[in-house]
Design a protein that fits this description.
eight-stranded mixed β-sheet; single chain; binds N-(iminomethyl)-L-glutamic acid; eight-stranded parallel β-sheet; disordered C terminus; binds fe (iii) ion; alpha/beta; 411 residues
Length: 411
Amino acid sequence: MERLLIRDLTQLVSPAGRAAPLRGPSLGELDVIEDAYLLVEADAIAAVGRMRDLAPLGGEVIEIDGRGRCAIPGLVDCHTHACFGGDRVGEFALRASGASYEELHAAGGGILSTVRATRALDEAGLRGRVERHRGWMQARGTTLFEAKSGYGLDRDTELASLRAIRACGGVPTWLGAHAVPPEFPDGDAYLDVALAEVLPEAARIAEAADVFLERGAFDAEQARRYLTACARAGLALRIHGDQFTEGGAIPLAIELGARSVDHLEATGHEGVAALARSEVTAVLLPVAALVLGRPMPPARALVDAGAAVALATDFNPGSAFCESLPLVCALACTQLRLAPAEALAACTVNAAHVLGRAATRGRLAPGFAADIVLLDAPDWRYLAYHLGHDHVAVVLCEGTIVPAAADAPGG
Ligand code: NIG
Ligand code: FE
């Protein structure tokens, strides 16, 4: 069996314990080993510890020099829209001069302009896009990503998107209810077709279903109908909720036993308290709030109340053209009032929990997948502290070193 030893690490850092999701004070508990080693066997972590406790290893071992470097778990991005064609740089410029995201959407731009560009790609083209975006994510330390469909909104493009995401190693989510496509008079007419003609096959490819519950998209009753059908087909449930308005996403997520409710920029005290009493994870997306000039989600209140909180990029061409979880961690520490340790747990263990993978991802501990990031930094907290700098030096996915981003295939 192939073995790999990362030795003389300045620090090795992992969320403490084995529980998931981490809540309240546990979210900030990290194990930090100074002057550490990490031993990988095949695709899994075999041992971690202090250099002085490293017993001689017989046989062949590949070594990586960890001097001046800190090891953290591979980052987990549990909310992206990485399968899309085109871009929205023109809208970005319009927003910079005062146009609002909702106005652009209502005028047929926004999500629907990306739908047009995505429908123009065939499956190989979609795969090329996801591969390129995966390369960008990996270069920033993401070793596991979720990606949603939702820019096809017709049978062929939705299913091709889900297959492309899966082919690129992503965890596919069917965002069949992202927007009402122009060929339908209303959301109900669209859902009739989506549930009858797309869901049966989407449920074979995707792991979860997601809906954009918001004025101008789908209301709570439509979301309930869509999610109930998806749950019956065996999919886990997610909701884009409370991005601009509190539209009942949190009660619905709790009622239906959803994995997560994501965004929450508009969530008030009652929503915070309800989430804290529930099993639903709050996925916070501070880049979208930043880019759209929205209030930041109530992260501190959620953590203090005991809710399970995860962080993600929301990578998409409109509201969050950003694949960097280190940048998300920086925003979490400067805008969401989370400690660096809380931010790290939120985009490792808790994000893995949202994807149903917390037993094998999100920690540097024996038995976990060898998804490892080495930071060129004297302290792992540079990840969030050094704003806009790239400290990611080496990324391993299941024990294999990921080639540098420049080598990542384009699309
Ligand atoms: O999570 N809010 C809805 N969906 C995405 C944005 C998608 C887009 O603008 O293309 C989000 O922010
Ligand atoms: Fe999103």
